[in-house]
Design a protein that fits this description.
Layout: H1 15-32, H2 39-47, H3 53-59, H4 64-88
Helix pairs in contact: 2-4, 3-4
Amino acid sequence: MMEMGFDIPSTVDGPDVEVINRSTLINIHQNIHLLKEPYREIFLLRTAIELSFREIGEVFNKSENWARVTYYRARTSLAEKMRGENNEM
């Protein structure tokens, strides 16, 4: 009986992809630390701790809308920093 070979994609990345992913994460983290306050803290509260905008506003004694706008500005600034680095390569 002839066995049929199926090409089943692996969920495990090779070492080259792992190095790139790790390098990218380190680069993102370095750029997060270049953000000015309160942008850096708000970005981390939202992404790492997953606080809501209402909760972030409470931490800073500000409105939910203030937290939302400040987070958006932080995210935009981070994206611009990352794009600038990619253009330099």
